[in-house]
Specification:
With 161 residues, this protein is α/β, with parallel strands linked by helices. The chain contains 7 helices and 7 strands, in the order E-E-E-H-E-H-H-E-H-H-E-H-E-H. The termini are close together. Strand 2 and strand 3 form a beta hairpin. Strands 5-4-1-6-7 form a 5-stranded parallel beta sheet, with helices on both faces. A two-stranded antiparallel ribbon has the order 2-3. The protein has one domain: Rossmann fold (3-Layer(aba) Sandwich). Helices cover 37% and strands 19% of the residues.
Length: 161
């Protein structure tokens, strides 16, 4: 089993004046990843992890408003919020909570984490996760420039042993 773990804010979406908008390429990325299969013809499990302290129902409203909710059902298994587990990214305990909700004791090496946050990437790599860093607005550091560039990288991860 492979897990593709996405950060939401400033990765798949951004907010402006209390409104939420999809990043360009979000729907293409999520649709394409949902159609991928590993060597055993199993799809990767897509999940969300967010430092979010409001009620889960507010988070669900956001992803439903963006029309990306269908990729992350059932919510109880595929969405992990810091306010629910008591730890923020990049604490290893929130990553462990995400993974264990999907498959108990799955190794970190079976997870790829996608975010714009460099510090979160660093800590996820220390745990053994594969990572992709999305470069958010005028960022000159390591990472991909747009979400579509992630597709072949995620596909290689899904196909790996």
């Amino acid at each position: 089993m492979k897990i593709v773990l996405f950060d939401l804010g400033n990765t798949l979406e951004y907010s402006f004046e209390n409104s939420h908008f999809m990043m360009p390429g979000t729907m293409t990325l999520l649709s394409t990843v949902s159609e991928m299969r590993d060597r055993d013809l199993d799809p990767p499990i897509m999940a969300l992890i967010s430092d979010f302290l409001e009620s889960p129902s507010r988070y669900y409203q956001i992803i439903e408003g963006l029309n990306i909710h269908k990729f992350f059902k059932p919510y109880e298994q595929r969405i992990t919020l810091s306010g629910d587990v008591g730890f923020n990214k990049p604490d290893s305990r929130i990553f462990r909570a995400v993974i264990d909700k999907i498959e108990r004791d799955l190794l970190y090496q079976h997870v790829i984490f996608v975010t714009e946050n460099r510090a979160h990437i660093t800590e996820a790599r220390k745990l053994g996760m594969m990572t992709i860093r999305f470069k958010f607005i005028n960022d000159c550091e390591e990472g991909v420039n747009n979400l579509i560039e992630m597709i072949p990288l995620i596909h290689l991860f899904v196909l790996a042993c």
